Structure formats: structure tokens, C-alpha cells
Amino acid sequence: MPVLGVDTELMQYSTVFLLLGSAVALTFALLTLSRLLRPYHPTPEKEMTYECGEDPVGSGWLRFNIRFYVVALVFVLFDVELALVFPIATIFKSLTAGGGTAALVAFAELFFFIGVLFLGLVYIWKKGDLGWVRSFRVPTEQGIRSWEQPKQVGLAPSSAKRIS
């Protein structure tokens, strides 16, 4: 293999640099051109936040329940599972034609992967993280997540309101 000089090595990257430079220049040119050609007539109605055709009510800074994020993460987890299982399922028939050992290894790895995901699902199910409505429960010995009743701060016992 011949030894390349510094000039030759830089020439190999010139197409990459040319592509990156042209991408940046084209992006800048198109954004500038669209800013020059578009009509710009702002009104208070046009600058109002769009919320599915409804007028916005209240502040945009709301506290979302953490359960939204937990459900979203579980969905992403199983979505990634599908993205990893589908390619193996598409080539599984060709793996069996080569003697079967490659197919057996792929099946064992896939079974292990799905088994770990299933154990994770059982774990979060038992913990109660998939339940949408939670009640205040007394701590138990089974390991299920539980919370104590919140204490009423600053109220006399006779004037405390019941949480339903």
C-alpha cells in the first residue's frame, strides 16, 4: 500500500468539506430569500399561540403529571424493541438455510432480549407505575409502591378536610 502525503490526504476530504460548505450556504441563502419574499403583516391574532383551534387559556407553564412521562418512556421502550426485532424477523428464514446454528443463536438472543423486556414490564406493573389513578395506600410487605396519607399542615384535627 503506497504511503500518502499530507496533500493527498487533504484532497480526499475536500469533497466532504465542499458538501458541508454548500449545505450551509444553500441553507443560509434559502432562509434569506424566504425572508425577503414572504409577506409580513403581523396582527395580535396571528401572533397568538395556536392550540388546536381553541383560544389559549391560562399560562403555558403547567405542571404535568409524571405519569405522562412514564407512559411515554414505556412506549418508547417497546417501540425500540420492535425496531430491533423486525430486522431479525426479516432475515430469520435466510439464517435457517445456512445450517441452522446462526438461526438458533439469533433466536436465543431475541428470546433473551424479549425476556428482559418482559421482566421489566412485570416489574413496573407490580410497582404500580402503569396505573393511571393511584390511591393512597398503607405501605405493604409485598414491595408494591405505596404512599402514606398526606398530613394536614396547620389545621386542627377537627377542621381537617377529607381528601376523596
Strand segment count: 0
Helix content: 40-55%
| Overall form | flat
Number of helices: 4
Runs in which pLDDT lies below 50 for 5 or more consecutive residues are none
Q: Which structural category fits the helices and strands? A: mainly alpha
Radius of gyration: 30 Å
Mean pLDDT: 78
Q: What is the N-to-C succession of helices and strands?
A: HHHH
Alpha carbon gap, first and last residue: 79 Å
Major sheet, described briefly? none
Strand content: under 5%
Q: What do these coordinates show?
A:
This protein is an all-alpha fold and 164 residues long. It has a domain at 66-127. Helices cover 55% and strands 0% of the residues. It is built from four helices and no strands. The protein has helices at 6-12, 14-37, 66-97, 101-127. The longest helix is centred in the middle third of the chain and has 32 residues, at 66-97. It is flat and about 65 Å long. The protein starts with 5 loop residues before the first helix and ends in a 37-residue tail after the last helix. The model has no long low-confidence stretch (mean pLDDT 78).
